[in-house]
Description:
The complex is a heterodimer. By secondary structure, chain A is an alpha+beta fold. Chain A has 3 domains: 10-42 and 200-266 and 481-485, D-Maltodextrin-Binding Protein, domain 2, CATH 3.40.190.10; 63-173, Alpha-Beta Complex (Dipeptide-binding Protein, domain 1), CATH 3.90.76; 270-478, Dipeptide-binding Protein, domain 3, CATH 3.10.105. Chain A is built from 16 helices and 18 strands. In chain A, the strands form 5 sheets. Chain A has a 5-stranded mixed beta sheet. Chain A has a 4-stranded mixed beta sheet with strand order 1-10-9-8, with no helix packed on it. By secondary structure, chain B is mainly α. Chain B starts with a helix and ends with a helix. The chains are: A alpha+beta, B mainly alpha. The interface between A and B is medium-sized, with 23 and 21 residues.
Amino acid sequence: MSRPRTLLRLAAVVAAAAVALTACGGGAGSASGATLRWGFALPTSWDPVTSSTGNDINTISLVYASLTQLDEKATAVPGLAESWKYNADGTAVTFTLRPNLTFTDGTPLNADAVKQSLLRGKTQQNSLLKDQLATIKDITVAGDRDVTLVLAAPDYQVPNLLAGKTGAIVSPTAFTEDAAAIPTAPVGAGPFKFESFVPESKAVLVKNPGYWDAADVKIDRLELTPTTDAATVIAAVQSGALDVSYIPGNQIPQAKAAGLEVDVIDSLQVNQVDVHSGLAPLTDRRVVDALKYAVDRQQIIDVVNAGVGDVVYQPFPKGYVAFDPSLDTAFAYDPAKARQLLADAGYAPGQLALTVTVNSISQSTAELVQQQLQAVGVNATIKVVPPGSSTWQQEVYLGRKAQFALDGTVGRESPVQNLTVVYGPEGLMNTSKVSTPEFLAALDAVRRTPLDSPDYPRVLQAAVRTGVEMSPSFSLGTQPRVVVRNKKVSPLPHFLSQYRWEGVTVGSTT
Amino acid sequence: MLRSVVASRTGTVSVAVLVFVALLAVAGPWLAPHDPLLQDPQAILAGASAEHWLGTDNLGRDVASRLLAGSTLSLVAALEAVAVGLVLGVVPALLSVHLGRAVEWLSLRLMEALVTLPFLVFAVAMTALLGNGLQQAMLAVGVLVAPGFYRVTRAAALPVATAQYVEAAVLAGASPWTVLRRHVWPKVVPAVAVSTASLLGASLVIVSSLTFLGIGITPPTPTWGGMLATDLQYLFQRPFGPFVPAVLIVATVWACNGIADALRDAPALSAERKVAAHVG
């Protein structure tokens, strides 16, 4: 009779101890075993070398650490490298790595690993980083921690450039063994280690205790799922299927009414229209200019995004160093001028036909633009690109089939890099692939100007102006990140450049 | 046949609903108070008013006008699918009964293969292949409802084809066409009519599902499914927004099924079927 009672007491003591230990475990602010479910978008590739959209930095940076990273204001600060130093004429920069770094597969992350990783980006046949890494002529290594990038010409943008996927360091062991596996099985030294991945469905990552800033990572497990239907996001966060996601501005009242937290975070993202001037009738510059004046940007922001965002005529937000105030009214809405330009180009009202290409979640914008174009006599039809992690890339960036694509740049770590992507001769978003010598010279001048020089803002803004005036594509407005989160998740830090998770905690209550 | 349908209460109500929806579809362009595509950014997500009977959508378009325009497209699309299914199902079924074993074997295998294809995936694949249009999507749906017609028609035609009076007609020199037209077809019609009504409802559900997903339509074309998808994004602002398109879809499908039931249960038609079965 006494034996069962003893066992019962023992079980009670064990249960109480377990409860007490669990309660103590969350001392850092996050419950032990904290899982965060993030509804966002899966990257086009988990390999930074073959990733084909800037938006991927938000997810790729979960797995990879870069040599540098950007602070809240998008200024380069130490990452894997604890410091860097330029030579006198800006033609070489030496990065000093933090000590004792390793990749999640156990490979030492030393100067030689950095060299191999960057060289792969420069040389791999299908690399999409070649353009950005072209500024690096040679890479030399001194000891385990110093790696020197010898540049083709003075370029003070390199620390910024390497803060994103361009500087994301991949384990040489992994890509030497099987480079083709990296897009689905990445190995880096970022805040999380890759655990599993189902394409188009889900990625599971666990905290990497070897990350150089692991103390700031309070999330033990991160589950990433794509969200394709905005209508379901709030319900998903409310039900706990997701903990954090993003919503359009017009759903803010609904999210708040559902008892969820909403953070509007300024970002480098600027919506724009990619105009392919190689496809008729956009070969006529007057037609292209007419389209720039025909689009009522403020109406798009008000109607589609409930007033969240600002009209801009350049690919940078107000307040950022590259933002040129002189472009504030560059292509202000002027339907009469648009009609006149079309008439000058020989198009009577209704004669010009155009296809507006849009992704499946931006159809409202396309319908609004369609009516705005119709008001100046352009008959637009809408082509919806179906959802998928690479469908937009295949249709617009790589296929270059779109005349007039409603797109957006999430920004880049270096303003020169962003200008290159948007306006450069090989820029992903420059679907025309046309650039002028004046623009390239202006970009070169920016690269040669040290970031702490008083001339830097002026030189940079001049390059922006040249790009805006040259390009057939045009900006529409900023797109702040509207983050919706469960109350158990602490606020996300406000970084202009991307989502970051340092310091974010996940509590145990909803 | 109509008299048999309206003999029951369900049949009467179903016919009334279907006639009402058909009237909306036919007279929609004249009844619509506004241009269904005209946006008014100053009046987005407005509630019901004298100006906008059912309010406005996320781009300030008149919801009532869009529903009326959507009625035409949704119904015509469903009819199109059923028409394709009728041709591709009924004709091979009749031929399989009268043109020997080779045709019978081939058509049976073909229909079995079609039955294995999932509706939505096949429709999506067809629109990817032929272009994102309602015609293409409905062609796909029509192909997939064809086995339903095939099986019903064949089941009804088989006993008739081996009936003594049909054999007598053949011996008397009647051509296969005459046999089909005079002896087989009248016995098959009731079964085909039931299937047509039933599959019309099913096709409408498929059309609405596809357009809900944005397949088969090009914005800003209004359809019931497409409007439902848009309204669901603005539930907070317009909680009753999805109600009207959803009710229209449900009521129309219910009416189609009601007519199918009424046709099945109609005494005259039941007697026809019993005779056919008895003869077989």
